[in-house]
Amino acid sequence: MKSKTIAVILAGGKGERLEPLTRDRAKPAVPFGGAYRIIDFTLSNCFNSGVRRILMLTQYKSISLDRHIAIGWSRLFCREFGEFIDVVPPQQRIDASWYQGTADAVYQNIYSLEMERPEYVIILAGDHIYKMDYGKMLEFHRENQADLTVSVFPVSIEKAKKQFGVIEIDANKRIIGFEEKPENPKPIHDEDALCYASMGIYIFNAKFLFEELCRDAVQPKSRHDFGSDMIPRVIRTNAVYAFPFNDENSDVHQYWRDVGTLEAYYEANMDLVGIEPLLNLYDEKWPIYTWQPNYPPPKFLFSEKDRCGSAQNSLVCNGTIISGGNVQHSILGHQVRVNSFSTIENSILFSRVNIGRNVQIRNAIIDRDVQIPNGLQIGFDAEMDRMRGFHVTPSGLTVISRPCLMS
After folding, report:
1. Per-residue confidence (pLDDT) for residue 405, from 0 to 100
2. Which of 28, 146, 178, 211 could bond 241 through an S-S bridge, CB–CB 3.0 to 4.6 Å?
3. pLDDT (average), residues 348-360
4. Tens of pLDDT, residues 308-336
């Protein structure tokens, strides 16, 4: 069944709510957990599930994503065995416009899909953090003789408001209602505080998908989006089922995160650094793959003259040197340098960040290659951070982007 399946990963969104981190890169290419990119989780799920025919649809600022796939992922797929991962920029085969929505993105690449002659098509988002075996969802789809299956995740009604597509199902898990980002989500049961959110994971019978894409393309009032248009339309006429999320994360709690905002991105990273992290990156049964540069192991310096480099409850990547500074509850990417008497708390530092001496940083995200001069305080005074040109979120998170190089 998997040999008859092709995955389409939608990786072309602008990621405006993640700016300034997406100012120069696509959202799926944003670093995550120090050593990874966001896209690595969806790709690892495909690889571990045995779904190894993949089309990745890109659009905006995709060069770093293209490079990451070429260096880190293409080598894992063997074309001689029918495996591939193809990065597909907009082909404009239909017309000269950019993608108008998720359904339109797939429709504009329908020729590439038809050439592979799949029986099933899995539509995936490239910007979520989770572990999932798509093979189990394929089995569910086939057993129920579904035309379309949507993976769902229980979330609180408050969290779902205006944020997620919300699904109603009957006792047989057939979908009987779908609202895209409603103001008043319908609960799973009466008086329940939870509702079913769409995870943006869809399995279509290929023939049904092609027919519906062609039908949607000629609808003048359609936004050409799976959640807004196609799914609400087909639940009235076809067999559309909800698949409860099966979590391959080795933890008692199910884990799925949409990291579409700076706060959500920050919180998902912080999920990794606890004594018992909510997302287990050390599970050999469901590994997360990526490309990592050939740097030496991280180094922590110590001398008897009050100089001690240390890190607690933190992830520290290869090539990083903590030279007499202290790092707590933070994530440090490759080749970071923390100089003497500096402290880093509750922060995310991308690769090649250099922290000067006597620096204090808390509740911050610092993009690649940024140089922090001696004696600076970041994350203590929001107005001062704004005056320096840093981005400060409503929750008080300070984000320093790559162009902001300081002397």
Report:
1. 47
2. 146
3. 96
4. 889 999 999 999 999 988 999 999 999 99
Q: Is the overall model pTM greater than 0.90, yes or no?
A: yes
- Residues in the chain, total: 407
Per-residue exposure over 86-97, b if at least 16 CB sit within 10 Å of its own CB, e if not: ebbebeeeeeee
Q: Which residue would you say has higher pLDDT here, 93 or 80? A: 80
Q: How many CB atoms lie within 10 A of CB 303?
A: 11
Q: At what angle do helices 39-49 and 63-72 cross, to 10 degrees?
A: 40
DSSP class of residue 218?
A: T
Cβ atoms of 247 and 130 closer than 8 Å: yes
Question: What number of CA atoms fall less than 13 Å from residue 182's CA on the CB side?
Answer: 17
Asked if 339 contacts 321 with a C-beta cutoff of 8 angstroms, the reply is no
End-to-end CA distance of the chain: 58
pLDDT band (50, 70, 90) for residue 391: very high
Residue 251, pLDDT score: 65
Q: Is 295 left (phi over 0), alpha (psi -120 to 50) or beta?
A: beta
- Report the distance separating Cα 340 and Cα 352, nearest Å: 17
Residue 407 pLDDT more than 50? no
Closest CA to 52 of 65, 43, 39: 43
Report the 10 Å Cβ neighbour count for 276: 7
What is the rounded distance in angstroms from the CA atom of residue 181 to the CA atom of residue 267? 22
What one-character DSSP code corresponds to residue 374? Answer: T
Which DSSP helix (H) or strand (E) runs through 147? Answer: none
The 3-state DSSP class for residue 402 equals: coil
* Short-list 197, 33, 75, 56, CA closest to 122: 56
- Which residues have a Cβ under 8 Å from the Cβ of 62 and sit 6 or more positions away? 11, 12, 26, 29, 87, 89
Q: Name 360's bridge partners.
A: 343, 377
SS3 270: helix
Sorting pLDDT into bands at 50, 70 and 90, what band is 94? low
369, 386 Cβ separation under 8 angstroms: no
Of the listed ranges 219-233, 259-273, 322-336, the least confidently predicted one is 219-233
